[in-house]
Amino acid sequence: MNKWIFVLAAAAFAQDARQIVEESQKRNRSNTQQYEGVLQVFNPNGKNSEKRWQFYRSGNYGESKALLRFVSPPEVKGVALLIVNHPDRASDQWMWLPELQRDRRVALQDRSTRFFGTDFSYEDLEERDVNQSDFKMLGEEVVDGQACWKIESTPKKGKSSQYNRVVMWFRKDIYFPVQYEMYAKDQLVRKLHYRRIEKVNGVWSALEMEMFDVRRKGRTVLKSDKLQYNVALKDELFTLQSLRRGE
Amino acid sequence: MRLLKLISWQYVRKHLLRTVLTMAGIVLGVAVFVGMHTANQSVLSAFNKTVDRIAGATQLQITAGESGFDEEVLERVQAVPGVRVAVPVIEAVVNLNLKSQGNILVLAVDMTGDRGLRDYDLEEGDDTVIEDPLVFIAQPDSLMVTREFAAANGLAINSKITLAAMDGPRTFTVRGIMKSSGLTSAFGGNLAIMDIYAAQKVFGRGRKFDRIDLAANEGVAVPDLQKQLSGMLGAGYEVESPSARGKQFESLSSVYGMLANITSLFALFIGMFIIYNSFAIAVTQRRSEIGIVRALGATRGQIQALFLTESAILGLIGAGVGLLFGLLIARAISASLGNFLGEIYGVAQKADEVSSDPRLLFGALVMGVVTSVIAAWIPARAAAGVDPVQALQKGRYQQLSAGENRVRRQVAAGLFVVVFFCLFFAQNRIIFYSGYFLTVIAGLLLVPTMALWLSRAIRPVMKFLRPVEGTLAADSLIQSPRRTSGAVSALALSIALVISLGGMARASYNSIEEWMRIALNPDMFLTPTQNITDRSFRFPAGFAEEVRQIPGVAYTQVVRNSRIMFQGNPVMFVSIDVANLRPESYLPAIQGDSKTMYRLAAEGKGFIVSDNFAELYKVKYNEPLELNTPNGRLSLPVVGVVRDYSDQKGSVLLDRAVYVKYWNDDSINVVRLYLDGKTPLATMKARIEEKLAGKTRLFIFTNQDLKTYIIKITDQWFGLTYIQLAVAVLVAILGIINTLTVSITDRRRELGVLQAVGALRSQVRRTIWLEAIAIGVIGLVVGLFFGSVALYYSLEMSARDIAGLRLDYTYPWGMAAGLFPVIVGAALFAALGPAEQAVRGGLVEALEYE
Fold first, then answer.
1. Which residues of B touch A108 (CB under 8 A)?
2. What is the ipTM of this complex?
């Protein structure tokens, strides 16, 4: 009897975890997004670098398309990345190289590699649909003085990911994620921390994120500037033709 | 052991020079064997090392011959579940015109995923160059080089290197200098890393890759993945481990390996005769000692064992010294051999280090000892058979008995009968080689008889030239054929080898010249590579049209040469627009009808194959030739067989349309150009350069340039064999020195008597000189005769087992005539030392000898 109560309670917890993630995605939903990003990479050897980009997104989790185009430094200016997310499988990604005047596909196998020399991986840029993972409530903890739910996400069977599990902290008051811990083969490999959480155009947003690569001891700070939601973006912006035109 | 110390050691100490000369045969035989093989092995090892270092963690490589394959194949491979990482690769050897070592191997990869297979640790430069592939690939002029290469060329970060790209000269920037590691030692450290998409442009690859390197997921069995990928891609793709590339190169250069085998074994064989000769003489000279020892109770077995042990020790020391010399030879020639083989086969490697295989060295050591023991076997048996009573009597022992000579002649005649029958069943390889072996044995059995007859034949001539000295020298030879026959055999074998290879060279030159006259008749050839066998760079399909527009150009033909795997071997496929081929370029059909053959080939209804391809792969006229291509199986009949020298291992000619359709490759290696005849060649060359050189990588060869280049390569090939032959002749010269040294020791009393009765020193000298010249001439005559037979067998071997090339029998009379002064000169040179030895001995001592 006790055993059954335990199973039912666990099921209810699981349902809660999924609902929290769904609620978070629902609350932060916006049709489009654009910002100017600054990527600051702090290498463990003391060499730091900075890259700036413009970011555009259309659609939401699982069905979104994103385009980011570098504006500096000069050696990468014009390089762009087009990401087309799918609800049922990993995203498609293409890179545009203006000097060569050609696009190249970023292979799925390469998604675990570092994204443009930062501590993010290509996979970290994907917006995954809630149906691609299973969720489990691990409990509640305080992060940055805020009460949070601690939820574990594991990829569903057949879904590919470099991480075998991701632990997420969601602020209870606004259903907004503030911290992630990513595990590969049960080893902690990356930590993502959200800062400067503000409401922009009615959408809660982190204006600063810091990714820490546990293995290489490097960290990358992504700052968003001129962030706007629900602005008018043409669908054509998120096509290979547009990527090739360098628009 | 005691016998060794008491008898052998004393003899060796007394005849130290002769012992050294006896060993020299083995030293040279083993040195040639080890030198040639180690050099060859070093080249193969350098190639394998480069393949291995570049492979990194690669478990399988996917190729489709040299034509490469479309980019979409990569996506299909990456989508296979068992594949952990699959990355595209383009590899090319480029001459950077820098002051250091010349060529550099450019490895072009997609840095995004390539670090899953290879490590690129930077010593200098911004780490982001490798840590952020974006920086590297966003700037297509990026290049990473090794520390060794940078140091040799004074390069630093941001140094510029100009590379002759397909679309003209391009400046590249050194963005990273790699630390020394496994990868950086590939190609002797002359390695550069480039972005693959930039390389597609630089090397004119279009949207194609040369190959895919991949590694399997954990827990996935590589053979299973190999099968899965082969099944998915189809038979036109090769899915192999990286080491398979080494085997392909080995297969390509097998002709050289075989030549090295034949020559070095021949050298050892010749060395064997020198040892046989020395031991036969030693037994004769030591008859009295043997007699005493036998009288004191030594058994026949002990005497035989004594001589065999002596020969084994000599063989061991000789082989040991030969090993050292062999390694020195290898060190001296491996780099140039590597360049030479690279030029012939168009395969990149850099053999700067000598790579010796302990098994080969041990094998050579054993071979030296065994050869020595075999050579001493008959003399040792003769020693064991010495009758103590007769041995203690003084007398001449060098004379062959009439009965002994008759038996040899009878055995030789019997063998010749067998050889004659072997010729009728020569299709069978075993019977053919048995026939060859028996011919050599029969010939050698006849050497003493031939030497005797020839000595008698030249006696009047020698007497006419120098009545006293000539007669004495001739008589010495007539009376002691046993002493002479070993040296004559060794010399005859050397000369036979020279004649057979010289004949092959002559026949090859004749055939190649005839082939060039027909097949290479355009006025000019345009290529994107400096070396015509290198296919790293290719012209795009539209290039020929651009050339055609140049005033003065009457006609163009495009050629694409590509090595494609056939029956597990890389075979040269030559695709050309056959309908566009001028009738005067038609090679005559050896099988089939020329006109029909070219018509069917032009219609894409058949292959034309070279005779050596047909011979090596047992392909028959009119029968279908089945090929696996990236676009499925291609089966067309062989519509004709021609004599073609495009490649040493055979070639297949097919219509360009068929090639483009099945291999998705419309690139061009060579544009054949016919001019209108109104503009001088030099003007046309300048005009073409002016129009195209700035836009594309371009090398212009006139008809004469190309022919000279091919003849140069052929010269190098045969030049290499001449070097080997020079060593073989050296062995024979040593034989003459040995024989004369023994002859003088043997005849000390006779020579002493001569001087006692008033002969002048100069007369004695001349006697020895004439004797040497006579041995040389006899060896030469016998060798020229043996050579005529050896040439027949060499041509057959070449056609059957080496290159498949059927060459016409052409006896090299010019070479035979040229050998006369060489051998006479060598014999005279060989006689100088012994002649001095003959005149410097004390008269009394000489008269007391024996």
1. 78-79
2. 0.74
